[in-house]
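Researcher: Batch entry, complex prediction.
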Amino acid sequence: MCTSTVEPSVRGVPLSVSGDEAVADLLGVLSYGALVAFDNLGADARLAPDLRRRAALSEMAAAELVHYRRLADRLAELGVDAVDAMEPFVPSLDAYHTSTRPRDWLEGLVKAHVGDGIADDFYREVAAHLAEPDRSLVLEVLHDDRHASFAVAEVRAAVEADPVLADRLGLWARRLVAEAITQAQLVVAARPRLVELVEPSGLAGLAALIDRLTTGHAARLSALGLRS
Amino acid sequence: MCTSTVEPSVRGVPLSVSGDEAVADLLGVLSYGALVAFDNLGADARLAPDLRRRAALSEMAAAELVHYRRLADRLAELGVDAVDAMEPFVPSLDAYHTSTRPRDWLEGLVKAHVGDGIADDFYREVAAHLAEPDRSLVLEVLHDDRHASFAVAEVRAAVEADPVLADRLGLWARRLVAEAITQAQLVVAARPRLVELVEPSGLAGLAALIDRLTTGHAARLSALGLRS
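Model: Structure tokens for the complex:
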């Protein structure tokens, strides 16, 4: 499917794109996402309450760069420059991160866990529609389980000790999701051919997809000890 | 030599330490150095004038974390916790970096190149006195040549276009070296047994070592297009 030429129509605008271009878009947004995740986890590491936690988060940040390198190498194989592939997604991803800058260590962990969780669930669904080797690549550059366990343990312990904190972090998680949805819409508006990869079965499929993402999100909040 | 028990006397204070402890100190300071280099290169990447340079510097930052991991694994083999091994060196390395925070992209590159260059020359000399596997490990975690070529090309081009900049960056490099020497003295004061690794032949050897480091530093400045 992803190498055939299709002519999707999004919001009434006819597009003539090949699936290869949509795959390059997907790898481009993933590449920039990895670069930004590296940057954010690195900044979060500086908020760590001690050297042990700082080192642990720094290692997770560095893992994002390994993902970036793999995606950039695959783009090069496809004859696409990684920087060119990333550029269209810089404004919307930067806007999301600028509007959701964590004020402390726990907000950083909630943001990484909640944001990465939704993104991973989403890309896992997209991967199902891809041909190899891109399917495996996308699955392999999803976020590290280590980070999820680390974030859950840290946030849960803090929230159990302080119910007021649970309310504050719960609100924070809701704001993150709202901002992420806004920016995801801008990504799709900038690159409508991505929709073709996301849900080839059309809008009905999209609604079901959003339902699955919402369920996963609620489960993650509950694991953190937060209400959805 | 590094596994025998020696009783060095530094500044007249008799010490009873094993060479293994000095090796753990060395790996500790290298580990924290790698963690801080990761952090600084990551922050420098944010100053990059474009996405291509930002991605390049981010990759070099991530390479530091790979070094950190190798050093931490070796410390674990020696039965030493990496965080414990790093702690003594946090104040002096942090003081160096706090007092030399680059104000722009080029200052960041000069700092990384000049500072890493001296540190690498120094650790290369230390490695010659170590037994395996630590000798190879220390040599392998020296900074990436990619970073040196990248920094030289960027700074040289900027300096050739603007001689005033050459003066400013030359002054900056002198300040970096002065701060580095101050902090290196504090490191040795905090961990005098490190001297045993650095120059087993005593103070005469130390003077020759400082001479060699100075020569290397002057060569690097000249490659950057700066006067020493």
